[in-house]
Structures are given as C-alpha cells and as structure tokens.
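[step 3/7] fold_predict: job queued, chain A
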Amino acid sequence: MSKPSPMTEQQLEQLDDRQLVVKFMEPVLLPLRGASDARKVEALKALPASLRPLFLLRVLDGHAAGSAWEYYVWTGILLQSPDTWPAVLGSLRELGALELLETLADTAAVHRKRMDGLAASASPTVNSGIRSVGVDAIGEDTDRLKTDGTQSESIPSKTPYPPPSASDLERNPELQLEMDALYAQYKATIQEAYRSGAELIRAYVRENGQTY
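[step 4/7] structure written:
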C-alpha cells in the first residue's frame, strides 16, 4: 500500500500549507484514480489514524477547488454518499475547520432544496425510492463513523438521485448566484483546514522521521 511522501526539512518550511498537504498525500491518492471503492477504503484504513483527516480533506478539495460549478457538482455527489459525506465532515472537525463546516452545511441546504424538488416532481413510484437526506447527513455525522474514524461501508455509495450537473447552474441564475457566494466562502474557509493539516504533517514527520 502506498505511503505518504517523505518530506525534507526544507519542504516542511518552504511549501505553503496547501502545497505541503497535496505533496504529502499525493503518493497515497494518485494510485487511487479510477480505483474501486473497496480499494479506496483499504488505502484510508492503511494510514495512521492521525493522517486520515488529510486523506478526506483531499477527497473533498481535490475535485471541488477549481470553480463554482465543480464545487457544486462534487459537494452534491458527496452529499448523496451516505458514508463519505459524514466521514469528510468528521475529518474537518478533527482539523478544527469550523467555519468550513458551516459553509458546507449551507451548501448542503442548497443541495437539499434540489433533492426535495426532485422528490416532489417525481412520480409516486419513483418518489417512493428516493432517499431523503436528513440532518444526520449534513451535521450530526459523528455517530455514522466507526470509532477509528473510518467509514462504516465504502467510498462512495450510490443513491437514486440523478447527480448534480453544471447545467443546473446554467438553467437557474438564482442557484448560480448562491453557489458563487458559497464557493467564495469555501475558498476562504478551506485555508483553515489546510493550515491545520500542514501543522499535523510537520509534527508527524518530525516525530517519526523517515520511518513512516
């Protein structure tokens, strides 16, 4: 199983917070592109417990960072994953990224409106198969995690909702404005998570040297 990248003292000092987290986690995450859910869970569990929040931080930001529509689509996909979404939120709590959690809660409320609309417009047969996303999925997530911080099943799980699309924003100017504002908040508040993640890496590397 791939391990995080060994870091030099120069890298620890000269890379900014985001660069440090990305470089450190790249050897773990790069081989997982296109991998099965089971393999991703295996890679997460293979990490020391203290480093798992970095894995899930990159799960979130690796696909959400580029633009408002990417943020909209990826957070919508994660929200519909009943294992991954609470795991991401739990990891951000470990990193102390409380403002980011508020931003994600507001983002989840926007997605929930979309899903409520889909449920309302669906036929009775289809509607009966749509799984509602309740408070537990956007806030009270810690009970959904195992005590070791890993997900209870897989990353990610499938749901019957059609996935969000960039065309949703094109068709709905109000939604576009909401997501532009939330994306701006996200870009500001994610920095707190990376700052905590970088501090975690520096402490971990200096404690463990090249033995990890």
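[step 5/7] annotate
The chain has a mean pLDDT of 82.
The radius of gyration is 18 Å.
exit 0
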